[in-house]
Amino acid sequence: MCQDGPRDAPALLLIHGSASSGRSWAPMVRLLSGSHHVIRIDLLGHGRSAKPADGSYAIPDQARRAAAVLDRLGIERAVVVAHSSGGTVATALAEQRSELVTALALVNTGPSLAAYLAPDSAATGILQWPPTDEQLRELASTGFSRPGYQVPEELLDDVRSMTHHTFLATMQATRSYLEQRPLPDRLAVLGKPLLVIFGADDRRWRSSSAGEYRAVAGAEVELLPGLGHSPLLEDPPRTAVPLLAFTAKHAVPVER
């Protein structure tokens, strides 16, 4: 867990996607921490967190751990921002602890499995572990808008640091959560302010599916032309603009 920005500023919890870590948000932190208390976590099985073979990687359990971090820090209200499959954890957190989540911002989080584009074969076909550099770069390539994008080495290290079990178990947990109920259906009943940011050239999730989130009353949907699945890495300033406008409206000041 990492903290940046003034501790008495409105809290912003950042949740990473599959096979990643809180480091994926590093390019955004400078842009967000001037006006927010920014908290980044590594979900179980990722980054610097434990990777137990017998642990539960189910999305509701990941959400409970995220809530425990905020509780431990004494944070009572937070805007939760999530990238990709981290959006399932953010949604589960809002389902479990409605009083804790003031608003949600999802970045390139597919609303349902029907919106998924990338083949599973590249990920599930890896039998050796850790993967070779070539396999890693093939896996990571669809995370960006254009072939040949130079993937940051530290993000490849995040995949290498996982076990084969946690890699597969965390992906299956996301799939299971989405199979049970699409995210717009879950979010529509929560009544939370929602911002959806989507790189329009996403190669993993159909970007037009971002419109499905309009089923949530008042949802704001922002498409970013020329960016892919990871706008927080490809163009942090452009990604920060709608996010900061949203948090300015919905972040709750800390009571003194």
From TrEMBL:
Transmembrane segments: none annotated. InterPro entries: AB_hydrolase_1, AB_hydrolase_fold, AB_hydrolase_sf. The keyword Transferase does not apply. Residues 12-239 form the AB hydrolase-1 domain. One of its GO terms (molecular function) is hydrolase activity. Keywords: Hydrolase. This is Alpha/beta hydrolase. It comes from Streptomyces albidocamelliae.
